[in-house]
Design a protein that fits this description.
Elements: E1 4-8, H1 12-23, E2 27-31, E3 43-46, E4 49-52, E5 58-59, H2 63-71, E6 78-81, E7 85-89, E8 92-96, H3 99-104, H4 110-125, H5 137-162, H6 171-183, E9 187-190, H7 194-207, E10 211-213, E11 220-224, E12 227-233, E13 236-239, E14 243-245, H8 252-255, H9 261-268, E15 272-282, E16 291-295, E17 303-306, E18 317-325, H10 336-350, E19 359-372, E20 392-394, H11 407-420
Parallel strand pairs: 1-2, 1-14, 2-10, 7-16, 14-20
Antiparallel strand pairs: 3-4, 5-9, 6-9, 7-8, 11-12, 12-13, 15-18, 15-19, 16-17, 17-18
The protein binds flavin-adenine dinucleotide.
Flavin-adenine dinucleotide (FAD) binds next to α1, β15, β19 and α11.
Length: 423
């Protein structure tokens, strides 16, 4: 007999859990705080273009995503394409991302280039991450690439993405990012963007008898006598024997205050970075690159992502500029206008031929828990996904460490929780 099971959060992980539950004959009831599904992968109407609030690309190793597309009959929507990278350094856009580009890069001597290249090459070839699990990322990188390559190529990327938290990052987490990208000869995009996948998953869930309740933030998971009793939203209690939570782990203590103290403390100790991501629609292309890393003392973002150089958008040119900030950082309190003005300036600096009249539209979106800070031996700091409470499973993007947050990883994890978690 199928069961009625609550799933909290309708990002890719929650949708995948609900999809699997419906497939297995259960009735998932999905509760989502936002007015739309998708979480970090959600889309919006950008003056007539349905597009992700945050840039999304895919790698050939994203097997769970490819499997889901296959099951939904969407494989033909996935396109793989070679892309170009750049590095903005010393007021110039350098080609990047190939051995030849590294060889020609004039910001480093030959030894530094060899050390940098060797580090990337060996990280891509490496498959066993266990030896890196207890190491910190910064000393690991510095030891391999040396002082000058670290200063020129890595330092600002760490600082602009993780700020003070950079020194706490795990080497295994960083390795997994280099490994995933380095193995993918081409990058992928979905024709129609993530929206196509989110819609198809939503349709399958509802066709299978599942319910998706938007604008329904869960304020409490009711626990008594060591078991789940149900959930509360807008002051209304709904009984459930089983709950799968996919909301960011730092929110868990607020909505599950009756968990044992050591578990609450473990969640309270977790760190996340927020993002303010500016998206720009231009009349003309900024560069011919998809991804441009940035090392410039006057530009406080780690990269620019010219998304239309990955996914063709019918003569529309779209660029993302992500500002990663801890949510308690004073700059995170700045208004959207402050970030938008900065991005106008940065783009005009990188492309001096760009004029105000070339900016067709520009917006900012915020996500308070955009990037978990995964520390060494990270999994040992997390409570188990199947909590010692009957009927309660709790996870977020950090639970598939050392892999970085990703749609494919969240889909895989969501389905596994639904399948194997005793549900
Ligand atoms: C800037 C940026 C760029 C990215 N680029 C890529 C990329 O190129 N490729 C890629 O694969 N991935 C990328 N990702 C990551 C990808 O989007 C995430 O891994 C994925 O969306 C995570 O899905 P999730 O369901 O695990 O979590 P989330 O997407 O965070 O979903 C959690 C959901 O829980 C909801 N929620 C929170 N609190 C409550 C509550 N109390 N009650 C009910 N619901 C609640 C939230 O509203 C949200 O919808 C990117 C992310 C960001 C921020």
């Amino acid at each position: 007999m199928g069961e009625r099971i609550a799933v909290l959060g309708a990002g890719p992980m929650g949708l995948a859990a609900a999809y699997q539950l419906a497939k297995d004959g259960h009735t998932p009831v999905l509760f989502e705080a936002d007015s739309r599904v998708g979480g970090m992968a959600a889309t919006f109407d950008f003056s007539g273009l349905t597009i992700e609030r945050y840039y999304h690309f895919h790698c050939t190793s994203d097997l769970a995503l490819l499997q889901m597309l296959d099951e939904l009959g969407l494989t033909r929507k996935m396109h793989w394409t070679p892309t170009k990278m750049g590095y903005w350094y010393q007021n110039r856009l350098h080609p990047w991302g190939t051995p030849l580009a590294l060889f020609k890069f004039d910001g480093l001597d030959l030894i530094a280039k060899i050390r940098y290249g060797l580090h990337v090459l060996l990280a891509v070839q490496r498959t066993d991450w266990k030896a890196l699990d207890h190491l910190h990322a910064l000393p690991w990188v510095k030891r391999w690439v040396g002082k000058s390559a670290y200063q020129v190529l890595w330092k600002r990327l760490f600082e602009h993405k993780f700020h003070e938290q950079a020194k706490h990052l795990s080497a295994a987490w960083l390795w997994s990012r280099i490994h995933r990208l380095g193995r993918s000869q081409m990058l992928g995009y979905l024709d129609g963007g993530s929206d196509v996948l989110l819609r198809a998953m939503t349709a399958r869930i509802t066709a299978g008898g599942g319910i998706i309740s938007l604008k329904t933030p869960i304020s409490k998971v009711v626990i008594a006598d060591g078991a789940v009793k149900g959930v509360e939203s807008h002051g209304i209690f709904e009984p459930f024997d089983k709950v799968i939570s996919t909301i960011p782990l730092p929110f868990v203590p607020q909505i599950m205050p009756d968990l044992p103290e050591p578990i609450l403390n473990a969640y309270k100790g977790l760190k996340n970075i927020a993002v303010v991501c500016v998206i720009v629609k231009l009349k003309r292309a900024l560069t011919d690159k998809f991804w441009v890393n940035i090392n410039d003392p006057d530009i406080d973002i780690p990269a620019l992502i010219e998304y239309s150089n990955l996914r063709p958008l019918d003569d529309q040119h779209v660029v993302y500029a992500p500002f990663y900030l801890p949510s308690d950082h004073p700059q995170y309190q700045d208004s959207d206008a402050v970030f938008v003005d900065k991005v106008r300036r940065y783009l005009k600096r990188i492309c001096p031929g760009l004029h105000d009249s070339d900016f067709l539209d520009i917006r900012a979106s915020r996500y308070s828990h955009a990037q978990p800070v995964c520390t060494p031996d990270y999994l040992s700091t997390l409570p188990p996904v199947a909590l010692p409470i009957k009927g309660l499973w709790v996870a977020d993007t950090s639970c598939y460490y050392p892999a970085d947050r990703g749609m494919s990883e969240s889909i895989d994890f969501g389905r596994e929780m639904a399948r194997g978690g005793g549900v």
